[in-house]
Design a protein that fits this description.
single chain; alpha/beta; 8-stranded parallel beta sheet; 7-stranded mixed beta sheet; 15 helices; 21 strands; binds N-(aminocarbonyl)-beta-alanine; binds zinc ion
Length: about 475
Amino acid sequence: MTILIRGGTVITADQTVRADVLCEDGKIAAIGPDLEAPAGAEIVDAGGQYVMPGGIDPHTHMQLPFMGTVASEDFYTGTAAAMAGGTTSIIDFVIPDPQQNIMEAYRTWRGWAEKSAADYGFHVAITWWDDSVHADMGTLVREEGVNSFKHFMAYKGAIMADDEILYNSFSRALELGAMPTVHAENGELVFQLQKKLLEEGITGPEGHPLSRPPAAEGEAANRALRLAEVIGVPLYIVHVSAADALEEIRRARDAGQRAYGEALAGHLTIDDSVYRDKDFTRAAAHVMSPPFRAKEHQAALWKGLQSGDLHTTATDHCCFCADQKAMGKDNFAQIPNGCAGVEDRMAVLWTHGVNTGRLTPNEFVAITSANAARIFNIYPQKGSVSVGADADLVVWDPAASKTISVKTHHQNVDFNVFEGMNVTGLASHTISRGVLTWKDGDLRATRGAGRYVKRPAYPASFAALAKQAALHKPAPVKRD
Ligand code: URP
Ligand code: ZN
Ligand code: ZN
């Protein structure tokens, strides 16, 4: 398929330029003024619109088996919905059960993802430790193109990683040139608070944020960052929701650490009043971890994106329908954790970021695609508009608007946390590896068209860290 995008303004993380873009055989073949249309090319009229890299959502959970059920959105429905909102790649998570062979879990997720309509990669969670995990991390990095490992510091009794696992896995990641990432919440504290609240008779969704206070996130962020500091490895903190965690990232970065933070569209725009909704179904539909926070945390997160202490945006797209959320009707700790958003992230961030003046359009590209591509080492194949890059593009109409609703969204879930939000700035066309998958409201995603994207290790930046560490290596004291 050949597509010529004509008359638009190309926006990347560092440039704004009036240019046409020619896509051929899945790649960007030419960028420039007044390009000739090859015979048979489909012309996309981008007059008055922006042409940007397709969004990369670096944090999704399609068809995740979690908390006694399975997320309702699968790799096909979820990536199709993503493309309706201008997102062309996701990075999902392989989450082995404790004691489950890591490679077996990885192959299971690879199998599930074959139906994906958009390109995808995987972070692999380290949920336990022994010599086989050490070896499998090597295989994943060297042979399978996995360059990031996830650690859940919460979910005690299930997938929680304790400090011993963190130490071993962070150290191995450093050897391999892979990025450790953490879900930062103190799982023991959350467990104890859940118990206490339930004993006090607080069983509804209002107990969820009370059991997961900002300090629990700040403590875990600090602990993970301090471990990473001592080990000498970079660290990426997923779904930073609280000023407490952001402060730790800022402190670490000020001290010269390579620390990265991710913010969710939901945490940036929704506050914790949702948990006091009188209607259980509506309150439970917002149960995710970390929870939505008081308004001052949202203001802090926006400042984090503006200052560069937060780098990426994601959704943590993890869908559970009302009947699944009802598993926690009498106990908030049993409500499956997770909310949707993969379709809405770009429009929500444009509306609340660019239209308010908090972000420039170039900064929008940085936080919705380019930074994730750089941090997870797939730049400029993804996250750029450059000749030779994958033709993953969104034609963005800054004047188009809609009201987000479960009635019109494409996500396979019966609730939308952004319900009723008016957004201005929408994808008019989405192009995924050179194929038009969304055109003026017409979703043309193809089951199985997505490809697994290998993400190489980071030899250069890790070699620099190793050099730095060697400079400070203590010598043994020679004694007679
Ligand atoms: O509530 C959430 N975030 N569910 C998905 C698992 C996780 O913690 O990322
Ligand atoms: Zn998480
Ligand atoms: Zn998650």
